[in-house]
Design a protein that fits this description.
Layout (H helix, E strand, L loop, with lengths): L1 E4 L13 E5 L4 E5 L7 H9 L4 E4 L15 H16 L10 H19 L17 H19 L4 H13 L9 H4 L7 H7 L2 H12 L4 H8 L21 H15 L11 H9 L8 H10 L8 E4 L4 E6 L9 E5 L5 E6 L11 E4 L16 H11 L1
Antiparallel strand pairs: 1-4, 2-3, 5-6, 5-9, 6-7, 7-8
Helix pairs in contact: 2-3, 2-4, 3-4, 3-5, 4-5, 4-10, 4-12, 5-9, 5-10, 8-9, 9-10, 10-11
This protein binds fe (ii) ion (FE2).
The site of fe (ii) ion has 5 residues, from loops.
Length: about 375
């Protein structure tokens, strides 16, 4: 299957995966299902819901299947659970509901066990973006990213579960800030921003009152907006004064926000977001944590198109933990035919060839509107040449 950004979708493309969307208190409903042929109405729906792209079928990539960090069923269930719990986070007295926090602790454990059972975790995060509802999706993505970083940093299961708790609850304090501020579409005024900046401390104070959450989790949440150079909030902590869980959470939080569509900008591709976070080493982030992050994240997710430094266009076939910047690729030639799979981390002939960015503007991109090729024309062309 191929990943096609929403703005490049065309009628007649066939979905290779469900596009999951509506998360209610009890189920997650697909907006569109695998096997459906796109038409203009479906494409408008996908655009309307700010989904950054979808996987479509294509015979040059039938064997290319993105690996899941957590399976679709568990992902959908956790999203529903997150929403259900967040919607009832206050008890009748308006205090943080202890049962919700207990449920979230169970969820944290489940996610850690599931992710620990996988070998060679490489996150194709682009795949997690086909969910609407930023808050819940962000919460889940940050948790998955944090757990995988924690595994690379050799944290034990107990610490990983604490880290997952921090991630699931990191923005809990925002729910206790007036919605006129948290939902404001425009830029916040300095006064409103000051109120917003209270969210880590609000969450920490609420959790302290329950006496069931460890100090390490509370502290991890309280300091998730601290920056390595001391310019963060609420305390302006520096370097190793910042708790480990907060340092991990900070990378996951910023990376996921960058790769999500927001009302004011399009989502960054993973490679662009990686470049951004790498540019913040020693100012915002700890280099040791970033190294752990880069080991698990696919800069060029499976099924995406990339430009090679030799001018060729290629599809990413597989990501390898040993070198996430040099995946296995398949070149697409101008006539629509493809090369065999090329492992950029091993193939000596390609030592000097690097990936220089996403390939969706490459003239050889099969669905490029400038070359006048429709998906059906393209399939036809392939059939003739193969
Ligand atoms: Fe936050």
């Amino acid at each position: 299957m191929l990943f096609i950004p929403t703005e490049l979708l065309k009628p007649n493309m066939v979905l290779a995966k469900d596009v999951n969307l509506t998360i209610t208190d009890s189920f997650s409903l697909p907006l569109l299902t695998k096997g459906q042929t796109l038409n203009n109405l479906f494409i408008r729906k996908i655009k309307y819901h700010d989904i950054i792209g979808v996987y479509v079928e294509n015979e040059v990539a039938n064997d290319i299947i993105p690996e899941e960090v957590i399976n679709e069923k568990l992902k959908a269930k956790i999203l529903v659970d997150i929403k259900k719990n967040f919607n009832h986070f206050k008890d009748k007295r308006g205090e943080l509901n202890i049962h919700i926090v207990e449920n979230i602790a169970k969820m944290a454990k489940k996610l850690v066990i599931d992710i620990l059972s996988k070998e060679d975790i490489i996150i194709n995060l682009i795949d997690l973006k086909s969910y609407d509802d930023y808050t819940y999706r962000h919460c889940l993505c940050v948790t998955i990213l944090s757990i995988t970083m924690g595994i690379t940093l050799n944290l034990n299961e107990h610490m990983l579960t604490e880290l997952a708790m921090c991630a699931l609850l990191h923005d809990l304090g925002k729910m206790m800030i007036p919605t006129e501020i948290t939902n404001k579409p425009d830029l916040l005024t300095p006064e409103e921003y000051d109120v917003m900046k209270l969210h880590p401390v609000i969450a920490a104070n609420q959790l302290k009152k329950l006496h069931i959450v460890s100090d390490a989790v509370i502290r991890g949440i309280e300091c998730h907006h601290e920056k390595f150079d001391g310019t963060g909030y609420p305390y302006g902590l520096k370097g190793n004064e910042i708790p480990l869980y907060s340092k991990i959470l900070a990378v996951a939080d910023v990376y996921d926000a960058l790769t999500s569509t927001r009302s004011y900008r399009r989502a960054c591709f993973p490679n662009e977001a990686i470049e951004y976070v790498m540019g913040c080493v020693d100012t915002h982030f700890d280099y040791e944590i970033l190294k752990a992050f880069l080991k698990n994240i696919a800069a060029y997710p499976i099924g995406t198109f990339v430009n090679l430094s030799d001018g060729n266009l290629a599809i990413v076939v597989k990501n390898l933990q040993i070198n996430p910047l040099r995946p296995v690729i398949r070149i697409i030639y101008p006539d629509g035919t493809t090369s065999k799979n090329i492992d950029l981390s091993q193939n000596i002939k390609y030592t000097n060839v690097t990936i220089i960015g996403m390939g969706y503007e490459n003239p050889n991109f099969p669905y490029n509107s400038n070359n006048g090729t429709s998906p059906t024309d393209y399939e036809e062309k392939l059939r003739k040449t193969s």
